[in-house]
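Incident log, structure service

09:12 report received: a user says their structure output differs between two submissions of the same chain.
09:20 pulled the input from the user's history:
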Amino acid sequence: MHLPIGMLVALAALEIAAWFPRFKNANASAGFILALATPLAVVTAICGWLLSLGGGYDENLLAWHKWLGTGTAAGCAVAAFLFYRGKLNAYRVSLFVTVALLTVTGHLGGSLTHGSDYLTRYAPWPLKQMLGGGEEKVSPAISVKDPRQLPVFAGVIAPIFENKCVSCHGAAKSKGGLRLDSFAALMKGGEDGVVLQPGDAAHSPVLQRALLPADDDDHMPPHGKPQLTAAETTLLKWWIETGAAENKTVAELQPPADILQIISGNPVKATLVN
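09:34 re-ran on a clean worker, output below:
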């Protein structure tokens, strides 16, 4: 799906370069690129529509992405038609309009796939602030000397889901009808039923699927996504086995020394949906 994107962006760059006398022949391959990019853009748009049938996406965001993607494919076809008819000025206008549509469509696609903050999520805080990434998502400071005062779900468990799961199981995209961006959503489960059994980690899919071999089709997070660390799975198992409490503090669950050590060494970052 990314091939026509690269082709159209490259073609626009070549057309801009051709404005300069030194690179006047930079766009000599325009016809060849259009001949490849146009059918690929149409196929990509069709595939996008078919993928959308799987559901699990924010409907408004998905609708914009689908129709702008269709417009991008149509714009590519119009640009190719104008080029082969010899109407080069109109072709260039159409090409740049198509690339503008492509930029917006690609951004919406990234938001659907990786979450609305995918451009700034891992950026350094000064850069994130400059790019409009919002307020820094940091919970109240907890001294590592007193991790027992940490709210166990909001401060220990929710950051794991937010960092490793919410891009596919959040508000913008909820694969399998499952959201993990709030305690209520977690307990509700998804299309396949509940994913967490308080007190029974062995029968809680939210943990067991993370423990499957990486090459297992049911392993989560899927291949290519950031994986849970051993410390994170240990924390999830401990929390589930102690009853999967929402409002208790770490102290109230009487954690063993190894759990306290893990909590003390992990920064606490989370923003939850009420």
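09:41 both user submissions now match this output. Likely a transient worker issue. Closing.
09:42 reviewer note: The longest helix spans residues 88-114. The chain has two domains: 3-114, 135-264.
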